[in-house]
Structure formats: C-alpha cells, structure tokens
C-alpha cells in the first residue's frame, strides 16, 4: 500500500476513535481561536461603529491603519506580539510567551482589524438609511449606534466568522509566540506543519481534514446568515 | 405592575413636555453656497386639521420641515417648540413619516414596539399597544411578517401606523405617497383621514395638487425658500394671493 492510502486509513481511524492527542489539539485550536474572536468582537465592533458614526481628529489615520492591518502577514503579527511579551518587552511581566494566552493575543491582533473594518462599513451603510428616522425617535447617539449594530447583525456575524476562519487556519503567528509545545501550545495548524516535516502523514492528514470540514461549516453558516432579501431577486430570474 | 398600569405610567412619562406650537422665524439655510431657505417663517400645530405644505420641487419644503423638527440646524433664524428651544427628549412628541419608509429588519409588530419603547413606554405595555394600533390600521394580519417584505404601500402605511401609535401631538408627513401607486395612495389617504378625524393635527408636504385638495384644511405655499402664503384651503384654491401660487395651481411650472 502506498504511503498516501495508508495515511488516509490511519487518519480516518484517528478521527473515528477520537484519538486523545488529536482531540487535545483540536480543542486547544478551537479554544484559542474562539477566544480571539470574542475579544476581537468586543474591541472591533464598537471601534468600527464609532469610526462610522463619530467625527474626531485622527479618525482618518485610524481608518487607514485598520485597513492596512487587515492585510498584516501572520508572521509579522507573531513577531510584534513576541516583542511585546518577551522578557525584555513592555508586557514581559505577564509571562505569557509560549502559552495559549500569547496565541490568543496574536490571533486577536490579526482579526480585530478585519472585524473593525467590516463593522465600520456595515454601520456606515446602515447609517445612511436609518439615521434620520432614529433621530426622529429621539434616540441618543449611543442608542443609535446600538440599533445600527443590531440592524447589521447578520453582516456582522459574517464578519466574525471571517475572522474565525482566518484565526483557525493561521500558523505563522502562533508558532512564533506559542512555540508548538506538545500538550501546551500545539494547535491543528502547527501540528500539521510539524507532523508533515516528521513524516507522520496520518496525523497531519486527519487534522487537515478537520480543518477543511470546519471551513466548510463556516461557509455554510455564512450562507444561512445572509438575509433572504438579498437572494430574493435571484430566485426565478430568467436571465 | 399590571399591563394597564404600565401603559398608563408609560403614557404619563411620554406626556412630559409639549412641542406645540412649533414655530420657525426667518429661517435661513445655505448648502454649497446656494440659499435653500431664506427668511422662511411658519407656525404649525396650533390649529386642528390638516395643513398642506405645497410648492414646486426645490422650494425648500422638506428642508424647512427638517429644521422645524430639529433634525437639521438652520444657519440663521430661530425655531421654538412651545416657546422653548427644541430638544431631543421632546422630538418623540412629533410623529414623522418620510418619503421613503425606514423600517427596521424586524417584524411589523416589532417595528412599532421599538418606536413605543423609544418614547419611554415600559416594555410590558408595548405589545398590547402595538396590537391595538395595527388593528385600527387594518394591518393586524401582517403583525408577524418581516417588515422588509411588505409592499411599498404597506410599508408606508406601517410607517404611518408606527408614528401614530406613539400618540404624537402633531403628525408630519414628507411627501408620503410619492412612490406609491394610485390604489396604495387611496389606502394611505383613507388611513390619514381617520387620523385627522381623530383630532391629530397634521402637516403634509406634497407637490401633488390633487392630494392637497383632498386633504387640506389649510395650505401653506412655499416658493424659492420662503413661505409665501398661509390660508384656508378653499380660499387658497379659489383665490391665491401671489402670482406664483396662481401659476402653480394652474399647473404652470414654477421652477425655483
């Protein structure tokens, strides 16, 4: 039997039997990325909404910065967090380097700009449509912002899923700040990198399969979240 | 607290402060170097019935109303609500319906509940109150439909129902039927007549002479950023004072 088919069989067995090592790695990956998404949402949603609604000095510069950070290469994000958390860095006292906490920080840095930029665009679009009516309801600026975020909930959820997709599939940042330590900071992506280089293709393949399945699930979720209204025009179209 | 008490309490808190009459003195508004309003004065809400704000496109009708309702700050002149400066708390006493209905991505009923909550009504009383309003408007069969899938006519009637549910002291409509077909216009005007009969003062912006004749007890005629005349509707249509008003009634285009 070839290496590949052998690897496929072993990978299936690892998944079917819920291999302890495999489960540990998957659970840690989910924990790190989901936590990063929650933190990114807590920072990015209000930040994006504020940028859409408020006018203050430095606003344009902040928007340019966020748009630039959207394309931040993961390894650079890892490097920045590494420098911040290293013993000589400003946050060295936290002793977070080579812990899941450091990986959460790195992924948060990666996806907060995405969430903030998408939240800004969403709230900006909705504001044009709703602002006058909401002011006619006598709502305060804060209440208006809350309402706009709620009205854009489907698109914002899509933004969070996009952030999660980037976080869970990312390897460059977390391998720098997490170190890929077995039983401590080994996630799906870092494990795939390691196991492939070691020739342990079965484990790498099993993890790869789980990652792709996750990506599929996220995309299905995004589709179902999209408001029906946007589809309506397409159904029944002759041309 | 029982729902009835809750409603009563809600109504009490909403009744704090009155906005009538709304008065604009010598309002001026400049946009991109163009004088859109210059010396416009209008007082509304001090008499019952429907006042129609009539005038050609570009006369400044919509902007004058936005200034009077506090949605827009004028460059000059003075606006008072019941003799004092406009403030955000009291704007809920004015029911506003815009040319394009702005509905939230929620059910028909939830749209009304949202507006009621904004007026300060406690949550407990809102559903019953919304139900009541929909019933009166003949829209209760749509209560649990998503507001965004309604037809244009239904959406505008919902916007009207929502505004009236909040028990405004004055209802202001900005060309509410411009985008509607004749049948929807008729349905909308029927609902509006009921509201007028119930004694709510109405200010309706329109450039549709037919609609003005059907609705108006009084007419305020605007031209080139000023209110040119305010008088009883019958008198206005029979014997307008200004040449521009006469031309407008005659269907001759009065470009600003």
String of helices and strands of chain B = HEEEHEEHHHEHEHEEHH
Backbone shape of chain A: globular
Largest interface: A-B, 14 and 19 residues
Alpha carbon gyration radius of chain A:
21 Å
Count of individual helical segments of chain B:
9
**Number of strand elements of chain B:** 9
Poorly predicted segments of chain B? 6-15
Number of strands of chain A: 0
What class do helices, strands and sheet pairing of chain A give?
mainly alpha
Biggest sheet strand line-up of chain B: 5-6-7-3-8-9
So what's the overall shape of chain B? globular
Q: N- to C-terminal separation of chain A?
A: 51 Å
Into which percentage range does the β-strand content of chain A fall? under 5%
Main beta sheet strand tally, sense and closure of chain B: 6 strands, mixed
Name the beta content range of chain B. Answer: 15-25%
- Rg over C-alpha atoms of chain B, rounded to the nearest angstrom: 18 Å
State the helical fraction of chain A: over 70%
Between the first and last Cα atoms of chain B, what is the distance in angstroms? 57 Å
The ordered H/E elements of chain A are HHHHHHHHHHH
Mean pLDDT score of chain B = 87
Write the layout of secondary structure elements.
The complex is a heterodimer of chains A (239) and B (256).
Chain A: H1 3-16, H2 20-53, H3 59-70, H4 74-85, H5 100-136, H6 141-151, H7 153-168, H8 172-178, H9 188-198, H10 201-225, H11 228-232
Helix pairs in contact in A: 1-10, 2-5, 2-6, 2-7, 3-5, 4-5, 4-8, 5-6, 5-7, 5-8, 7-10, 9-10
Chain B: H1 3-14, E1 22-31, E2 34-44, E3 50-54, H2 61-68, E4 76-81, E5 94-97, H3 108-118, H4 123-137, H5 152-165, E6 170-174, H6 182-197, E7 202-206, H7 209-215, E8 218-223, E9 226-232, H8 233-238, H9 243-249
Helix pairs in contact in B: 1-4, 3-4, 3-5, 4-5, 5-6
Description:
The complex is a heterodimer of chains A (239) and B (256). Chain A is an all-alpha fold and 239 residues long. Helices cover 77% and strands 0% of the residues of chain A. Chain A has 11 helices and no strands. In chain A, helix 1 (3-16) packs across helix 10 (201-225) and helix 2 (20-53) packs across helix 7 (153-168). Mean pLDDT of chain A is 89; it is low at 229-234. By secondary structure, chain B is of the alpha/beta class. Chain B is built from 9 helices and 9 strands. Chain B has helices at 3-14, 61-68, 108-118, 123-137, 152-165, 182-197, 209-215, 233-238, 243-249, and strands at residues 22-31, 34-44, 50-54, 76-81, 94-97, 170-174, 202-206, 218-223, 226-232. In chain B, the strands form 2 sheets. Chain B has a 6-stranded mixed β-sheet with strand order 5-6-7-3-8-9, sandwiched between helices. A 3-stranded antiparallel β-sheet of chain B has the order 2-1-4, with helices on one face. In chain B, a hairpin with a 2-residue loop joins strand 1 and strand 2. The N and C termini of chain B lie far apart (57 Å). Residues 6-15 of chain B have low confidence and may be disordered. The A-B interface holds A 129-130, 132-133, 135-140, 147, 151, 227, 229 and B 69, 71, 88-92, 94, 96, 98, 102, 104-105, 114-115, 118-119, 148-149.
């Amino acid at each position: 039997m070839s290496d590949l088919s052998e690897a496929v069989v072993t990978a299936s067995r690892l998944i079917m039997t819920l291999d302890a090592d495999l489960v540990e790695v998957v659970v840690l990956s989910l924990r790190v990325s989901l936590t990063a998404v929650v933190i990114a949402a807590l920072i990015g949603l209000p930040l994006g909404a504020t940028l859409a609604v408020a006018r203050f000095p430095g606003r344009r510069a902040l928007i340019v910065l966020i748009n630039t950070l959207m394309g931040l290469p993961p390894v650079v994000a890892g490097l920045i967090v590494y420098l911040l958390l290293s013993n000589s860095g400003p946050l060295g006292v936290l002793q977070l380097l080579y812990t899941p906490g450091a990986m959460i920080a790195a992924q948060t840095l990666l996806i907060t700009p995405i969430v903030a930029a998408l939240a800004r665009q969403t709230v900006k679009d909705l504001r044009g449509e709703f602002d006058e009516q909401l002011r006619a309801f006598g709502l305060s600026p804060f209440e208006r912002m809350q309402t706009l975020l709620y009205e854009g909930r489907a698109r914002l959820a899509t933004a969070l899923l996009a952030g999660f997709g980037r976080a869970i599939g990312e390897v460059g940042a977390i391998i720098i700040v997490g170190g890929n330590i077995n039983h401590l900071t080994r996630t799906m992506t870092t494990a795939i990198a390691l196991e492939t280089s070691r020739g342990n293709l079965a484990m790498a393949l099993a993890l790869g399969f789980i990652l792709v399945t996750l990506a599929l699930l996220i995309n299905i979720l995004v589709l179902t979240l999209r408001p029906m209204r946007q589809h309506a025009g397409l159904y029944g179209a002759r041309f | 607290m029982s729902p009835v008490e809750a409603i009563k309490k809600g109504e009490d808190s909403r009744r704090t402060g009155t906005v009538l009459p709304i008065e604009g003195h010598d309002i001026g508004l400049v946009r991109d170097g163009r004088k859109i309003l210059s010396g416009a004065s209008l007082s509304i809400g001090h008499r019952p019935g429907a006042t129609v704000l009539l005038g050609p496109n570009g006369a400044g009708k919509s902007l004058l109303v936005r200034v009077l309702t506090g949605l827009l700050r004028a460059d000059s002149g003075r606006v008072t609500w019941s003799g004092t400066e406009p403030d955000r708390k009291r704007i809920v006493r004015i029911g506003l319906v815009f040319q394009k209905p702005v509905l939230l991505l929620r059910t028909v009923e939830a749209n009304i509940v949202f507006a009621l909550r904004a007026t300060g009504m406690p949550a407990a009383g809102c559903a019953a109150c919304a139900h009541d309003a929909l019933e009166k408007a003949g829209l209760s069969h749509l209560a649990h439909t998503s507001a965004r899938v309604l037809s244009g006519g239904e959406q505008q009637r919902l916007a009207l129902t929502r505004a009236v549910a909040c028990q405004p002291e004055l209802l202001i409509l900005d060309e509410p039927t411009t985008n509607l077909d004749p049948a929807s216009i008729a349905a909308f005007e029927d609902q509006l007549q009921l509201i007028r009969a119930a004694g709510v003062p109405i200010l309706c912006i329109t450039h549709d002479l037919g609609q003005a004749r059907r609705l108006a007890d009084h007419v305020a005629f605007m031209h080139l950023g000023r209110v040119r005349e305010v008088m009883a509707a019958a008198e206005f249509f029979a014997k307008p004072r200004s040449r521009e008003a006469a031309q407008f009634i005659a269907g001759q285009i009065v470009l600003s």
